[in-house]
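Exercise: predict the fold of this chain.
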Amino acid sequence: KVQPESGKGEQANFGTPPVRLRRSSPALQELVQMVGVSKLVYRGITDLCLVKFRDSDSPVVTVQLSMLLNLWSRRVQEAALCTLRSQLLMALHDAKAVDLCRTEQCHKLAWTLDACL
């Protein structure tokens, strides 16, 4: 995690280049080391994200507060899985895993969005 500047709290990450945030994430860097250039390991991780995302589909929403909080919690988990997948792909891109990145269909989209941030 990037250390926040004094007095700015959690908003210190706002405006920090994504590549810097990726490099400062020990968990993401550990995943990059695990994957290396292995398409099989990368596919396994992205498949796990897909399964967890698919299995988090919530039933019909009712108006009960506990159900709304549960739905919100699931949406946060889904966003975290999507973020993990995109940031892992871009961290591998940063690590020059060119052949692996070329096999990912959403690489150009992720790269373009990352460049816009």
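Check your answer against the key: Confidence is low (pLDDT under 50) at residues 1-10, 59-63.
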